[in-house]
Amino acid sequence: MSPALPDGDVPPDDGALPGSAAQGAAERAFGVYLHVPFCTVRCGYCDFNTYTATELGGGASQASYADTALREIELGGRVLAGLPPRPASTVFVGGGTPTVLPPGDLARLLEGVRSTWGLAPGAEVTTEANPDSVTPESLAALAAAGFTRVSFGMQSAVPHVLATLERTHDPARIPDVVRWARDAGLQVSLDLIYGTPGESLDDWRASVETALATGVDHVSAYALVVEAGTKMAVQVRRGLLDLPSEDDQAAKYELADDLLAAAGLRWYEVSNWARSDADRCRHNLAYWRGDDWWGVGPGAHSHVGGVRWWNVKHPRAYAERLERGLSPSAGREVVAGEAAQLERVMLGVRLAEGLPLADLGPEARTSVAGLVADGLLDGAAALGAGGPRRALLTRRGRLLADAVVRTLTD
């Protein structure tokens, strides 16, 4: 069960934005997120807004989805027509499993973005994929359509861990899909999850080393969070699965950081490592830096000039609203004042570039010395070594990033 949508103001049926959204738009990057809400099976830990074919009623199907999403892209073109024209610098297709759609449908969605907003020179165009949802031919077709990057949901290289997560792919397929993608000219990222019930430290080491053995230039590693309402949460509550301790999670993060750094991948966000700046995920960096993006699809969130809105969740309701010529948005809010400052700190401090101390209020700046003394922030960066004074997480600080944010925003 995916989480409920937040409360918010009722948006207008045409999706029009307040005039404040245009302020400073020319200085902000613009990206597009395309949500594909379909999976062949639902993993027990997943709380994303995704559906299997048997969960969908009339009016919503994988076969018609591209046409439906293209209607929202057209709407987005009309809504943003009053803002300074900005081609999309990044496009990210997520899900779900986007590659359950035929490559031709994904190509049509990308062409819709290109014809509506344009693509900036050198635009980054990513799709997520499961290792068992691609072939050499499908990856080549995506590259030919203009995709530049693929992010594979590897999660683990250990069969019993994948079984607990209810992932369906064979881990032996990982080197193959990485090679196929590279042969097609695509950049490749592998996504890993640590802290699955029953996963040992040696299991986790094997997963990280297997990912590195493929030679990929980008790895994401996320701690498993068991969300309420998921199948795994029920299993934990019934005592069928035991969650790892915080110390176990910390040890796995530190092991990953050591192994990735030794292989030449540097952290640039708490959960992301890249071989060079060119290998970083620019789309996600745009989120963390507070740029603008339009989110297409059921349950997708958008943000333009401090205005954030979110779409209705179910594919059928989403399709029905667009067929009636209405915006699919269910609610929206203007992020300003203390809420905007909280987000700025919460997201900015996670980056390896650090958060400028000038972005903190006077009281927050006085707490920096204590965080340095506690080993959570880098002392040299706080004093301005190499540039402006910054709040830069140490590795211990990365493990306790939420506590650092609380201290800087209380």
From TrEMBL:
<keyword id="KW-0143">Chaperone</keyword>
<dbReference type="InterPro" id="IPR034505">
    <property type="entry name" value="Coproporphyrinogen-III_oxidase"/>
</dbReference>
<feature type="domain" description="Radical SAM core">
    <location>
        <begin position="24"/>
        <end position="266"/>
    </location>
</feature>
<keyword id="KW-0479">Metal-binding</keyword>
<keyword id="KW-0004">4Fe-4S</keyword>
<dbReference type="InterPro" id="IPR058240">
    <property type="entry name" value="rSAM_sf"/>
</dbReference>
<protein>
    <recommendedName>
        <fullName>Heme chaperone HemW</fullName>
    </recommendedName>
</protein>
<keyword id="KW-0349">Heme</keyword>
<dbReference type="InterPro" id="IPR004559">
    <property type="entry name" value="HemW-like"/>
</dbReference>
<dbReference type="Pfam" id="PF04055">
    <property type="entry name" value="Radical_SAM"/>
</dbReference>
<comment type="similarity">
    <text>Belongs to the anaerobic coproporphyrinogen-III oxidase family. HemW subfamily.</text>
</comment>
<dbReference type="InterPro" id="IPR006638">
    <property type="entry name" value="Elp3/MiaA/NifB-like_rSAM"/>
</dbReference>
<keyword id="KW-0963">Cytoplasm</keyword>
<keyword id="KW-0949">S-adenosyl-L-methionine</keyword>
<keyword id="KW-0411">Iron-sulfur</keyword>
<keyword id="KW-0408">Iron</keyword>
<dbReference type="InterPro" id="IPR007197">
    <property type="entry name" value="rSAM"/>
</dbReference>
<comment type="function">
    <text>Probably acts as a heme chaperone, transferring heme to an unknown acceptor. Binds one molecule of heme per monomer, possibly covalently. Binds 1 [4Fe-4S] cluster. The cluster is coordinated with 3 cysteines and an exchangeable S-adenosyl-L-methionine.</text>
</comment>
<dbReference type="InterPro" id="IPR013785">
    <property type="entry name" value="Aldolase_TIM"/>
</dbReference>
<feature type="region of interest" description="Disordered">
    <location>
        <begin position="1"/>
        <end position="21"/>
    </location>
</feature>
